[in-house]
Please model this.
Amino acid sequence: MSRPTMLQHLALLWDCPLVIVVIFISGIGGTFQYGFGISSVTSPSAYIKRLVNQTCIQRYDIYLQDWQVSLIWSFTVSIFCIGGLLGSFLAAPCLSTVGRRKCLLFNNLVEIVGAVLMLLSQRAMSFEMIMAGRFLYGINAGISLSAHALYAIECTPKILQGMVGVTIATFIGMGKFVGQLLGLSELLGTEDRWPWLLGFSGFTALFQLVSLPFLPESPKFLLLNQGDQQACEKALTRLWGNKDHSVEVEEMLEEKVALQNTQSRSVTELFRERSIRWQLITIIVTFLSLQLSGINAVYFYSQEVFRAAGIHEDQLRYATLGTGMCEMLSSLVCFVIIERTGKKVLLFTGYMAMTLTLILLTITLYLQHHIPWTSYCSMVLIFIFLFSFSIGPGGVVAPLPGVIFTQAFKASAYTVACTINWIGMFIVGMVFPILVENLDSFSFVIFLLVCLMSGLYVYFNVPETKNKTALEIAVDFDQMHSKSGRWKGKKRDKQPPDVRTTYQTKF
Model:
């Protein structure tokens, strides 16, 4: 039987209009907030630093030195990561207890409170309100990374889950792009309007808060966590149409039988469970590489490269806007091709392309001070790197915990994944300036080694996950890493029932 084409996948998605609505509503109040929180703070940085100084003069009659203002500003930016880390820890119990949809709903309240603090900060002459708002934004982003991914994927037919998983990264890219766009001086990036820029995400949170109650809860949560088969079937009918969903329900019940004596597992139990060791290692490697792949370093160097390429200082902001657009559009390419190529292929080729691009970028950045035309090569390589990242790790990694773990471990797996993501972001933010100061363009050597090792890990240790249930993927991991090694590197044939049953006994 031939594989479904891309047009058939899109047609199937079009036949499920409520799934499209779920994708948009969960995304605009989900990972969009994460991307917007990263990019929106860049444009008004000078105005916020001025507010810090004015506040101290007015309140304490103290004029801060530049290094003191920079220290406060760095803490204001990095507290977003601290909030994100806390949000990651809160996500698992919230998702397991109240469900995916209600978790997203309650999460919006955190974002709205943060947005109100941002909007009032300038009028109140309080940079502390910006810090508090950034902290709340971080909590919201930490929760939404897990909640959005689980809700969108579990509301989607299995055959479309790869495509829908990519939209998680698409909304991150969209958030970054909108933050860059609204930060232009022609829009909200001015001295009078910058609080509205920082508070804009409160409006997207309000939109989700109002619209999400009209959507059903995740069918998988209703059946596996709450044991309500009737509510599950009703949700499936609303989401996927009035068709026969007995096969999907049977697969869920199969997983429920395999996990019938197992409640949602904690993070500690996740680390102790030997049967899912390689799934856990895969999550650690792939999520750590998201931050250590050099994506933030490339964004950091982009303005220097554009400047060396002769782009006028006043136009740099538009060139930087192009990088955000490139990342967002590239994730749409990943959305179109992922069901045809598979996640493993995209991950491996993405990492290898990023490795090669970083090698060439290191060379051109070193030569651009001696050979002027190489700066144009650097500019092209930046966009190639962003494209490779977005169609590879950027588009595939985010939904991975919801794909390769069974229901009992999903929430905890997302907690571990998002915690690693936030810690990695914090480390890069703290260490990268030191690397640049000491290694300059050769700092990319560290990142290219990370990309190379991650690509090799995926090639040798991760099975393809396309159109497979979590139990089937678990069997693949188990066989790929069995002592005999007879499955390693081989294409998996259809699995005999007895092997699958044997694996289920581990749970």
